[in-house]
Amino acid sequence: MKLRVAILVALVTALAGAVLLLGWHGRTPYPGMWSVVSFTLAAFLLEKSGNDLRFETKGSTSFVVHLAGGILYGPFWGSLFAGLSTVLSEVEQQKNGAKVLFNVAQRVVAVGGGLFLIALLGATFPLFDFHSAVTLNGSDIQRNVLLFFLFAIFYFAFNTVAVSLVVAISGGRRFREVWTLTFRGVLGYDIGASFLALFLAWLYVRFEDGVGIGAVGFAIALAPILLIRHIYGLYWKLQSSGRELLDLMVKAIEARDPYTSGHSVRVASLAKAIAQEAKMSAEEVELVYTAAILHDVGKIHEEFAPLLRKDSKLTPEETALLQTHSVKSADLVGIISGFRGVVQDAVRSHHERWDGGGYPDGLAAEEIPLGARIIMISDTTDAMTTDRPYRKKLPIEAVVSELQKYRGTQFDPRLVDIAVSSMAVRRGMSELQSSQPVTEPKVIEGGSKKVSSRQQVPSWRNRASWPKIRVF
Amino acid sequence: MHATVWALIAGFIARAAVKVITASDGAVWS
């Protein structure tokens, strides 16, 4: 485990210990075994119906029960219920010690810390008197609703920041990227859904008063939530199958053209780095990444197979045919409705040149979609930074001078400036260099005879203009 | 008429509730 991850886990755990200790001194009376079991089990059940989010995160609606327990029983019992339910679900999933500790602790601090915050502003627990009929004319109600929302905001702020931080550090990603892509878009829904916690707490108390068992109220409220989340889980699985299908497509094309083994993923990583340096938003960076991953899928068409395997110079007709791959790629990408528009356009135009001499449409300068201009640079860079049988990979400085040489003719000059002056992009280029694409002769099926990929030297190896890199 | 309006309002609230329940997440490190 990385030292920085260990420090973060220790820090959050220490905070959780402090919250429980502080809470113990000012705790409300013991709410009874029924409440402990009801709140812990209800949160555990909701946690079980959670879904995988992006990166190494998982989300669930267990927060509804955590918030409800908090406003009814105060910092100590509230954070204890949240902690206990998290222990159950973490142990059930057999996670490693650090993850269990971190998740339990961040939940304790999210609940306990939020409750301490509103206690400082004058909140007492239970926050609402649900035993009597709720009247809406008292100023207390309005103040307490405000305090409740403050508690919910603290809960989500701490929870999402802590989880993003640990995932970013352990996975070597940027905190902002993880937080923005995973949580920013849904924060409004989180706050909206926290209303359910008020409803849940009210139901629990009313059923406790009425039939003696608050858990009946839980069952009434949680059944529809569990059902809706279950259906959503199925939908989510469908979406991830879609993404896995894309992986399959990329792997399939790369199996057909061994030179490009790993090419799409490398181009996509570099394109992402350039897009980030160009200060595109996280959502736009994601679209560029997707387009870069898919930029060559059209090469899977049967008509390209002999051209990709050919070891002699391509005829002008063959070159023209190979150049249709960007349109073919875009057509395939357009099958996925979510990729029509930005992603599809970037794929179609990834061989357009800044001076208008590219294909398929001869677009120039700003007419070329930004994503396509970025892919053009990363695609060419990857071709230069990987070993080919006919030449060794170029050193970074040679790559940079090539990019600068064709700045304003082949490439967007502004993007070249951003790419060559950025440490992050240069680091990305070095990573491309250290990655090993096709180095061992790989035997592939080539019609009736077996051919080694080393024999398949592309036609442009002897071009006079080398090392200007031709990428098809 | 009243019934239609109430049905529309109920439908709208149900839709919003479903959206909120499906989109909201408390997170853990998985």
Please tell me about this protein's structure:
The complex is a heterodimer of chains A (472) and B (30). Chain A is mainly alpha-helical and 472 residues long. Chain A folds into 2 domains: 3-240; 257-462, Hypothetical protein af1432, CATH 1.10.3210. Chain A is 64% helix and 3% strand. Chain A has 19 helices and 4 strands. In chain A, strand 3 (443-446) and strand 4 form a beta hairpin. In chain A, helix 3 (63-92) packs antiparallel against helix 4 (97-120). The relative contact order of chain A is 0.08. Mean pLDDT of chain A is 84; it is low at 436-470. Chain B is of the alpha+beta class. The model of chain B has no long low-confidence stretch (mean pLDDT 85). Chain B contains 1 helix and 1 strand; from the N terminus they run αβ. Classes of the chains: A mainly alpha (472), B alpha+beta (30). The interface between A and B is medium-sized, with 44 and 14 residues. Strand 2 of chain A pairs antiparallel with strand 1 (26-29) of chain B, so a sheet runs across the interface.
Structural features:
heterodimer, A: 472 residues, mainly alpha, Hypothetical protein af1432, 2 domains, two-stranded antiparallel sheet, 19 helices, 64% helix, disordered C terminus, B: 30 residues, alpha+beta, 1 helix, 73% helix
Q: Number of DSSP helices of chain B?
A: 1
Number of helices of chain A: 19
For the largest beta-sheet of chain A, the strand count, sense and barrel status come to:
2 strands, antiparallel
Morphology of chain A: elongated
Low-confidence stretches of chain A: 436-470
- Secondary-structure element order of chain A, N to C: HHEEHHHHHHHHHHHHHHHHHEE
* Number of β-strand runs of chain A: 4
Our estimate of the beta-strand percent of chain B is 5-15%
**Number of self-contained structural domains of chain A:** 2
Q: Give the uncertain stretches of chain B in residue-range form.
A: none
Our Rg estimate of chain A from Cα atoms comes to 28 Å
The largest chain-to-chain contact, stated as pair and per-chain residue counts, equals:
A-B, 44 and 14 residues
Order of helices and strands of chain B: HE
